TrEMBL record:
SUPFAM superfamilies: Zn-binding ribosomal proteins (SSF57829). Keywords: Ribonucleoprotein, Ribosomal protein. One of its GO terms (molecular function) is structural constituent of ribosome. One of its GO terms (cellular component) is ribonucleoprotein complex. This is Large ribosomal subunit protein bL33. The keyword Ribosomal protein applies. It comes from Ligilactobacillus ubinensis.
C-alpha cells in the first residue's frame, strides 16, 4: 500500500508547520485547524502539493 507525505501549510502566513503521512483513499481536500507558531494562534491549515 503506497503512502504519501503531505505538508500542511498555514493559510494565513503560508508556513508549512505540519507534515502528515496518509494513504490514498482520501477524496476531500484536507483542511485542519491547527496552531501556527508564527501567527501565534490557531489558523486553518491546508495541504500543499
Ligand atoms: Zn501562520
Amino acid at each position: 500500500m503506497s503512502k504519501k507525505k503531505i505538508a500542511l501549510a498555514c493559510s494565513v502566513c503560508g508556513s508549512r508547520n505540519y507534515t502528515i503521512t496518509e494513504n490514498l483513499n482520501r477524496v476531500e481536500r484536507l483542511e485542519v485547524k491547527k496552531f501556527c507558531r508564527y501567527c501565534n494562534q490557531h489558523t486553518l491549515h491546508r495541504e500543499t502539493k
